[in-house]
Specification:
The complex is a heterodimer of chains A (about 250) and B (about 550). Chain A has about 250 residues and is α/β, with parallel strands linked by helices. Chain A has 13 helices and 7 strands. In chain A, strands 5-4-6-7 form a 4-stranded parallel sheet, sandwiched between helices. Chain A has a 3-stranded parallel sheet with strand order 1-2-3, sandwiched between helices. With about 550 residues, chain B is an alpha/beta fold. In chain B, a hairpin with a 4-residue loop joins strand 5 and strand 6. Classes of the chains: A alpha/beta (about 250), B alpha/beta (about 550). The interface between A and B is large, with 78 and 82 residues.
Chain lengths: ~250, ~550
């Protein structure tokens, strides 16, 4: 099985440790993974803000870079949902406009093979115990796009529950949006922060040492609020917990 | 609302009857100006003001949390809930598909049953029709059943201008009206008020509008309801004309249905001599049998009840029983525009249950009035811009801000009884907002500028690689101890993010740089030679 990593642009720049964790984890599970360097961005930020035409070259690039792989795994449920749900919309509009008549077919080829990390581990590799150890109390934030758009269900929790030493604690209002919302975070910053601060209160109420999720983007927002307030809670992508610590290199 | 773009249809001239001596307008004062949503600033600014109101936030949080939990329980009782939602969506899609024919069928059935049907293209026409009918019957006041359509067209204001007092009889609408206030929720218009505030409003205002509240009125719900009941009773018994909306209209029979909880609607629909119903044209159902689906979906979604306490249905006029004149005003007011958009039209499936408001994390924090429309919350964010004509022409800044008033979390879609994909329509409308930016050279919007640069960078991996190196350097200049960037001033979006949030400094080595250096060689574990050769075939940097 030829597997590619789609790292997601903000992980690439701000959280490279998340991409390294996915590589480490998959290799430990015996699954080779490639990083096609032609990849950039799924276009979600543009699409969700209304700049649809700007998405066309990004979708074209995505299908060009990831064509031919059996699976594309990404540590971002939000990007996975953009690809699986909305790349077809961008492609149809490009075809209707006469810009790229065959784009819908190329998208239909690639998009269904894109998996969020927990989907890939549980559904494709068939593992829930990835052999990790993490002796800490952890709260899990079920991100909106993972739950409602992708429908990952309880796959992330099952993976976390199988981690040796990890105590998964309940968080009040866990299913409520943290308020990140992509450009919503800066276009409606006051509302976004108000939602985020309520989430911060829930994180603190959970008593967890670590907050984790399948999207670094939500964690960037919650973590940014926690950090500004000096709160002693670490945010980590689920991949970092499942992969275990880096040994140099 | 945007100004109607058509001339008002000429109507038979009516003598302007002066209000009867002692007739009083809304809340008893002779037709003082009624508040409207006009002048609401764009959503981010309106939201900022609302967020600062701690009492509003506490009231909303308590109320929405309660109703959310109740709704979840009511829906969980039905193991066929998903099938009901699918059926509800399918029936409404059928209505939208066959709307012209169904409307004509409804008109014929209502007329055959002794009613009169009027067609109104916009708010001005509808208001003129209602005003004319009220005057023809020589009335100077009307009692009103809670109705979103009449709020949408600002009927009370139009009637006040004509010297006709419109009395709201729904408890929450009464609180809003007596408080010279604006509704902030579709189903619970006074959700922003707590019991103590309601007591104050009743004590202060009821005497000016009719029967006063008792001097020793407490803030016990039972006492508040009793005060309202007595205050309204004299209006029910006196009024000769009632105005209602409609929850459903059955095309095959001409039957109109109103569902409610308090019985005030039943009083208005049965006691007066004349009944005027203003109904959005999308409220149709093809068949009587379709009520089976909607009378299950609506109460559980709206009030978390298995069945609402009062379901009133009437077909035209029944001699000797109830109103002896029935007028049905079919209101377009932008709905045909909404119908013309294949993606946006699903908003017309809405049955005004408010479930989307109650689960919306944005609505819960800012309340309804920040949306600047009678339709707040997620459904308002997709309905208001469309009713205001976004599909046909550029809209004002406040309207254009509404599709962005959402984090796209999807909770609304999850609860919608007719499966309106609200997040999908929101991003669709955002694209319409963007397309309405002036073409050609112009001063770009800030987000246009930022996203424009981003897409230029993202189109080429090499540009991204260079941008990452530059960001890494810049990040280290502003980063504090621990590699985090703290409070930072600057132009939007820098200020918007860093006002309250930190950000990790861009990595010294991006993922792609790490991969180039060691990753493909397999840091921590060595990839097979086979994998290496595969990587050789992987697409390289695009030109």
């Amino acid at each position: 099985m030829r597997v590619a990593l789609f790292v997601a642009c903000y992980n690439d720049l701000l959280y490279p440790q998340v991409g390294r964790a996915v590589v480490r984890l998959l290799r430990r599970l015996g699954q080779p993974v490639e990083f096609p360097p032609g990849q950039t961005c799924c276009g979600q930020m543009h699409f969700n803000t209304g700049y649809r035409e700007a998405c066309v070259p990004l979708v074209q690039g995505f299908v060009r870079v990831f064509a031919g792989y059996d699976a594309v795994v990404t540590p971002s449920s939000s990007c996975a949902s953009m690809v699986r749900h909305y790349h077809a919309t961008v492609a149809r509009e490009a075809a209707d406009a006469g810009t790229d008549p065959s784009l819908p077919a190329r998208v239909a080829e690639v998009a269904p093979r894109v998996y969020e990390l927990s989907e890939f581990l549980v559904d494709v590799l068939g593992v829930t115990d990835v052999g990790a150890r993490f002796p800490h109390t952890v709260a899990f934030h079920p991100t909106c796009h993972s739950r409602r758009l992708l429908g990952v269900g309880d796959r992330p929790e099952r993976l976390l529950a199988a981690v040796d030493g990890l105590t998964l604690v309940d968080m009040p209002h866990a299913e409520t949006c943290c308020g990140f919302g992509g450009t919503f975070a800066v276009k409606n910053a006051d509302t976004s922060v108000a939602m985020g601060l309520d989430k911060v209160a829930d994180v603190l109420a959970s008593g967890a040492e670590v907050l984790t999720a399948s999207d670094t983007s939500c964690l960037m927002h919650i973590g940014g609020l926690l950090s500004r307030r000096g709160a002693p809670v670490r945010v980590m992508h689920m991949a970092e917990i499942l992969a275990g610590p880096e040994d140099g290199g | 609302m945007t100004a109607p773009d058509r001339e008002l249809q000429p109507l038979a001239p009516q003598p302007l009857a002066p209000p009867e001596p002692g007739a009083r307008g809304r809340a008893g004062r002779p037709f003082e100006p009624i508040p409207t949503y006009a002048g609401t600033p764009p959503f981010p600014r309106a939201a900022r003001a609302a967020l600062a109101d701690t009492r509003l936030r506490a009231n909303l949080q308590r109320a929405t949390a309660t109703i959310r939990a109740k709704r979840a329980r009511a829906v969980a009782e039905r193991d066929d809930w998903e099938a009901l939602r699918l059926a509800g969506a399918a029936i409404k899609n059928e209505v939208l598909h066959d709307l012209p024919a169904l409307l004509v069928q409804l008109e014929r059935a209502v007329t055959d049953a002794g009613g009169t049907v009027h067609w109104a293209r916009d708010a001005a026409e509808a208001n003129a029709i209602v005003t004319r009918i009220v005057r023809e019957h020589g009335a100077t006041e009307v009692v009103k059943v809670k109705s979103m359509a009449t709020e949408e067209i600002e009927l009370n204001e139009a009637l006040a201008e004509a010297g006709i007092a419109a009395w709201e009889t729904d408890l929450a609408e009464l609180i809003v009206q007596l408080g010279h206030d604006l509704p902030s929720h579709i189903l619970v218009p006074a959700i922003h008020r707590n019991r103590a505030e309601i007591r104050e409003i009743f004590r202060r205002e009821m005497a000016l509008a009719g029967r006063p509240a008792p001097d020793d009125l407490s803030d016990e719900p039972r006492e508040l309801a009793e005060a309202a009941r007595l205050h309204l009773r004299e209006k029910f018994l006196r009024a000769r004309v009632a105005v209602s909306g409609a929850n459903f209209a059955i095309a095959e029979t001409g039957t109109i249905a109103v569902v409610e909880s308090e019985g005030n609607g039943r009083m208005c629909l049965t006691l007066p001599e004349v009944l005027i119903t203003v109904m959005g044209i999308e409220k149709l159902l093809p068949r009587w049998q379709d009520l089976e689906v909607f009378l299950q979906l609506l109460p559980r979604s709206a009030t978390a009840e298995r069945m609402n306490p009062y379901t009133s249905m009437w077909t035209g006029v029944t001699p000797g029983d109830g109103p002896q004149a029935f007028h049905l005003v079919l209101l377009d007011n932008g709905r045909s525009d909404v119908l013309s958009d294949p993606v946006g039209r699903q908003a017309l499936r809405c049955i005004r249950c408010s479930a989307c408001l109650n689960v919306c994390p944005v609505y819960e924090r800012v309340g309804g009035r920040a949306y600047g429309s009678v339709y707040p919350g997620p459904i308002g964010a997709i309905l208001t811009p469309q009713l205001r004509g976004i599909v046909r022409h550029p809209v004002d800044a406040q309207t254009a801000s509404l599709p962005y008033a959402s984090s796209l979390c999807g909770a609304c879609f999850e609860v919608c009884p007719v499966r309106i994909d609200i997040p999908g329509v929101l991003v669709h409308l955002r694209a319409q907002v963007v397309r309405q930016h002036p073409m050609g050279p112009h001063v770009p919007e800030p987000d246009e500028l930022v996203l424009g640069v981003a897409s230029w960078v993202m189109e080429r991996p090499r540009r991204l690689s260079i941008a990452e190196r530059a960001a890494g350097l810049a990040g280290r200049v502003v980063a504090r101890r621990g590699g985090r960037i703290g409070a930072l001033r600057g132009p939007w979006p820098v200020s918007a993010w860093f006002g309250e949030r930190d950000l990790p400094a861009p990595a010294r080595e991006s993922f792609r740089a790490w991969w180039r250096r060691v990753g493909r060689g397999g840091a921590g574990s060595t990839p097979s030679g086979q994998e290496r050769s595969r990587q050789g075939r992987a697409p390289e940097d695009a030109p």
